[in-house]
Amino acid sequence: MDPTKNNSEFYEIKIVQINLQKCISATHLLLQFMYENQIDIALVQEPYLVDNIVALIPINFHVFQSQNRSKSAIIVNPIKLQLMPLNEHINEFSVWCVFKSNNKLIHICSLYIPPDTNPNANPESIIDSTNNAINKLKPTYYLIGSDTNGKSKLW
Known about the structure:
By secondary structure, this protein is α+β, with helices and mostly antiparallel strands. 19% of the residues lie in helices and 32% in strands. The protein has a single domain, classed as Endonuclease/exonuclease/phosphatase (Deoxyribonuclease I, Chain A, 4-Layer Sandwich), CATH 3.60.10.
């Protein structure tokens, strides 16, 4: 699929960002929220996985995720929107897709940066990877929905 050839004209695209904390009930609540509020795209961190696949998502929805231990995903209701994954920029912590709206290419990313206590993840390398994707893609319009596990100094 080539999003540049999608002639869809949308004036409103509804997007939600959420960390599901690998929880079944949170996944069900997200889907209910998407249906009730006609959400087009969910930028998800820590999705519920079964055999490394985002689970419980209706078959008519599209899910974009990494092939291995996905910590982020993009869930799309394809009724009025088609996304194309940017596989070169999909990894365990980030998922990039692109779509066309109002004759403009829109890049979106679901990004998860684990807490500093995670020995398997280096936040700086995840941020560098995200910056590299932005520099390589050179998007005019982009949105990154993330859980950065940032802590306030006031806490």
